[in-house]
Give the backbone structure.
Amino acid sequence: MSLQLLANVFVLAAIYALVSAGYVLVYRVSRVLNLAHGELMMVGAYFLVATTGLFAGNPLLALLLAAMCGLVMGIVVYAVLMRWMTGEAVLAAVLITIALGILLRGLTILVWTTQQFYPAAAFGWRNPPVAIAPGVRISAASLAMVFLTIVVYLALFVFLQFTRWGVRMRAAGQNPLLAEQRGIRLHGVYAFAWGLSTFTASLAGMLLALDSGVESTMATIGLKAFPAALVGGLDSLLGAAVGALIVAAAEIAAIEYVDPLLSDVVPFLVLLIILAIRPWGLFGSREQLDRV
Amino acid sequence: MKDPSPYARELALFGTRTRRIRLAGAAVVLLALPFVATPFLLDLANQVLLASIGALALMLLTGFAGLISLGSAGLLAAGAYTVGVLVREIGAPFWVTLPAASAIGACLGLVFGLPSLRLRGLYLAISTLGLHFVVIYLGGEYEARETLSTGIMIDSPSLGGWTLSSGRAWYFVLLAFAALALLISVNLQRTRTGRAWRALRERDVVAGALGIDVQRFKLMAFVVSATMTAVAGALFAYFRNFVSIDAFSLYLTVQYVAMIIIGGMGSLAGAVLGAGFVILFPYVIEAIAGYLPERFGNTVFALDYAAFGAVMILFLLLEPAGLIGIWHRVKNAVVARRGASAS
């Protein structure tokens, strides 16, 4: 595998890892599989389009504002929708997220049409290819994506491991009943987890938007990142990163050596293989798995 | 039959006299419909009948056996593509393609069902989702290899000198298939298999302890459901005279899942009602969009998506028992009021 391919694998893995962190956060804390994650990522990217329209002269402000909108979006989704699903069957919660995804798909087209937007162009930013090694080039936005993913993962690790809210989240995920009895407000923790999840997804969406523009088909990338989360284990952040690398490597290899059409199906093939041999994922905890 | 035992009464297809009269009434209405309906209404009725088959199949699997599947679109695609490929490659007639489609459906049902022996709930849903993408890829690969940028054209099925093409003829064919699907579902529901499925749905470990062959009945649910869905897909191909992989997106799966939720989980009548609701919904939205400002008129499909998502959420949150649940509530309220006024 040439160096350029390796670089491509890392860029794609960074995208998948950043997106799948959101699947893991929500699943780990509240045991809900959020199939609207791809759409939420897309909405995050469209927030950037909106703030760009308002503050084209001030990219930093636009980016910060869009990222904040991403955080608030998750909290709102939890407060308005998912809160009512606590204690319901697992299936009902998943179906609600599927329905939410369709609703968001429709709403984004109603608000922003099917036109393609380029926030980077609005800022006057170019996206030049950067040579990271002799003969190996990736776009500047892709490089930023790789760095951001590393930063986000380190920050999430520190947050979950050492901060008060992080400990609360882990406690809520491990045993909601005990956590509640120790005075942790579950609704608050869940809402925060949803906020973090859409925040990281929005970051991914915004960087994708800066790299290659936003349009209404962007949500597919979010769905393709889901196998990464499952391969690593749905409740393990480390797993999501490793899973992203595996899925990205398999996808790039299949595109390069077998058939470009495979790109959409390879992540799900990897997912099926993992489900057949190790359904709880590489790093997931086994006892929580709803198995026969 | 004098004084039938409770079990015999439960087994009797047409039950009481009121039920027989009601069924006869429904049959008359259904048979008379194509002679009074406009071509547009007839087309709608055909679409609803076609969707009912797939919805009934999913209801058997999810509503009765409690096995979650996100594979409807993949299975419909498999049925439609079996027809498409056979017609294109060897010019097969429908009496070859339909059995072939059901055979492919049964095989795929086995494949879709295998994960259910190890996985439950969420993980099962995900594995069927994965298989959906595999089936869609195979179809897309075939289209790309044969450089069919616009899909496969399929002639209307014909037997002797007669061709099945008019809306009215299709109506009777689809009605027959839908009725057959309903009959199979009713029969499965009220016999040994149905009881085994209901036990599985409540708790498969307990079902196993009661002596039910868990693996056999799980696989059977998948095979029966997938076969029915694949036949519906094959009929879809002939009905539209056309197969393209674009028609079988994940959204189609969501529509079928929505049919059984909106109709009412665990009810066959609910599956048919839900199919009607989901099929007619876009037409209602289109009609409403006509009164909205120009801006929304141009993006009717987006309005349709948004409204559909919203309706699905409302049903899940407010009426998990679906349309059938509403119907039972209204009926009970009317009966209660009548009882109160009589006493």
